[in-house]
Amino acid sequence: MQTRVKPDPRVIFALVFGTSSFAIIIREDVVAVLGLLVLTLTFAMMLGVKLGRLFKRLKRLWQVLILVTLLRSFFAPSGIVLLALWDVPLLTTGGLAIGLLVSLRLIIFIIGASMFTVYPARGLIQAMVQMKMPYEIAYMVSIGLRFVPLFAEQLRDSLTALQLRGVVIEELKLRKRLSIYTYLLLPAIVSGLQQAKELAMSMEMRAFRAMPKRTSYFKLHFSKWDALMLFGVVALCAVIGYAVFNYNFYEVIMMEILEVYY
Amino acid sequence: MTDNNFVLTISDLRFKYADRYRRSSFELVVDEFAPKPSVCTAVMGENGSGKTTLGKLVAGILRPASGCIFYNGVDISDLKLGEIGRQVGYLFQEPSRQIFASKPLDEIAFPLELRGIDKEEARTRAKKLLDEFELSHIINNTTFTLSRGEKQRLAIAAAMIVNPKYFVLDEPTTGLDKQRRKILAKTLKKMQENGMGILLISHDMEFVEAMEAEIRTMKGGRLLDANKS
After folding, report:
1. Does the N-terminal or the C-terminal CB of chain A have fewer CB atoms within 10 Å?
2. Do A102 and A24 contact (CB within 8 A), yes or no?
């Protein structure tokens, strides 16, 4: 059973900022990124994020992992060669590590973003405003997040419409398949922009920004428990920072493996 | 009337939306539905009664939880959407949702090119179809700037390029003026005379009457018997 702890959204902003930053900063240490992912997953579970549904949607990341692994192994081989055709390395431990690293990074970003979904939009906007972010920007961020599924839906509908005109996408060659995505992207973006424009007009009709400052009865209260959790997040980031700048966990493990095999 | 060999049959169909759509209590039930070939069947009913869901199931966009949909006796559950699209056309409730190209000509020609038809040939066919649907004047416009009525006609024209044997139209008259409705009814009647069957989802009684459609009613996710409709 998942335990649900729901701290102030500002704690989550700090947590996601920390984990995402480390996911970018850590360059080659795949083991450290894996540890970071485990941490992010633990926090997401504690917050009550529906991870099962999220992972179902991440199924296609396998394709990214395989593609990056193969490209990296082929063009910049490093580590132990696991698979080779004549003298050309097809799969190396270095390539596999980089492929994993890219995928793990993406997963950390996605899980980080999913942590915000447990909060209502109003709470997130208020958190940003109370962090001294201008209201307009905070509101734009919140609306922008809601546009992501709309954008995905638009692309899905376009693909459906295309198939309903007798195009069997599964039978097309890779080059043609790629041309479909580039073809559909521009109209989807324009449609998104049009919807955004209509939304902006509708909001201005309802007197959005009529007064210089927008006030609110709703305020977030930063409790002692929140402060403690924020302190925990900062301390955790310090520990992770110390560990990743002083150790290379991947190298340590690889050395162990090399010692065992050679 | 041209003889049409396309027969649509639905039996014991059940469909439920996944929980994430928050319509988990809704269930679509169609025990038996077998419209006569080349006939226009109008499905009417209140909002949320399942008309669009039924249309999407017939066109293969949604897949049933149980039961079967047959095209000429062939169960469509194993067919890919593209294979279904070669037999059944679909017009979305909101035409902008199915227009994916930035130019009207590309909207019609691009799927043909993907199917291996020569670019020039695809463009010639597309121009001819735009002519038929009185859309030649918008050939150089971008699709984003078209009026709703023009988008509607373009979407229908684009769906017609594959010569579907059956056509599902979801609220085709929304946003069309009286004159355009007449033109649309005339166009659809002509296609029907050429042997195409039509499933018309609509609230527009006048249009349904103009189409001389057989009316079926949906209520709470159930397609009522013909005599109750």
Report:
1. N
2. no
Give me A247's structure tokens: 């150790």
What are A3-61's pLDDT values in tens digits? 456 889 999 999 999 999 999 988 778 888 888 999 999 999 988 888 887 887 777 77
Would you call A184 an interface residue with chain B, using a CB distance cutoff of 8 Å?
Answer: yes
The SS3 assignment for B42 reads strand
CA distance, residue A111 to nearest chain B CA (Å)? 18
Element (DSSP H or E) covering residue B89: strand B88-91
The residue among B106, B137, B170, B143 whose CA lies nearest residue A194 is B143
Task: Give the Å distances, CA to CA, from B44 to B12, B27, B41, B161, B192.
Answer: 20, 17, 10, 27, 20
- Report residue B187 as tokens: 């166009």
In the block, tokens 């992010």 appear at A40
**Lowest mean pLDDT: which of A135-144, A157-166, B187-196?**
A135-144
Burial of B161 (0-12, 13-18, 19+ CB in 10 A): buried
A residues 1-60 closer than 8 Å to B (CB):
53
Contact A20, A90 (CB under 8 A): no
Strand partners, B43: B201, B216
Report DSSP state, residue B72: T
d(CA A162, CA B100) in angstroms, rounded, equals 8
**B89 class by beta-carbon count within 10 Å (0-12 exposed, 13-18 middle, 19+ buried):** buried
- Find where tokens 């416009």 sit: B141
Say how far apart CA B105 and CA B97 lie, in whole Å.
Answer: 17
Short-list B83, B63, B56, CA closest to B72: B83
A186 CB neighbours in chain B (<8 A) are: 102
> What is the model's pTM?
0.74
Cα separation, A12 vs A234, in Å, equals 12
The complex scores an ipTM of 0.87
Q: Under an 8 Å CB criterion, which residues of B touch A?
A: 20, 59, 61, 80-86, 88-90, 92, 96-102, 110-111, 114-115, 143-144, 158-159, 161-162
| Token pair of A89 as six digits | 């390395």
What average pLDDT is seen over chain B? Answer: 88
Residue A208 makes CB contacts below 8 A (sequence gap 6+) with none
A160 touches B61 (CB < 8 A): yes
Mapping DSSP onto H, E and C, the string for A177-217 reads: HHHHHHHHHHHHHHHHHHHHHHHHHHHHHCCCCCCCCCCCC
Mutate to test the interface with A, among B61, B90, B100 (most CBs of A within 10 A): B100
Beta bridge partners, B11, equal B32, B68
Triad B119, B122, B125: Cα angle to 5° = 150
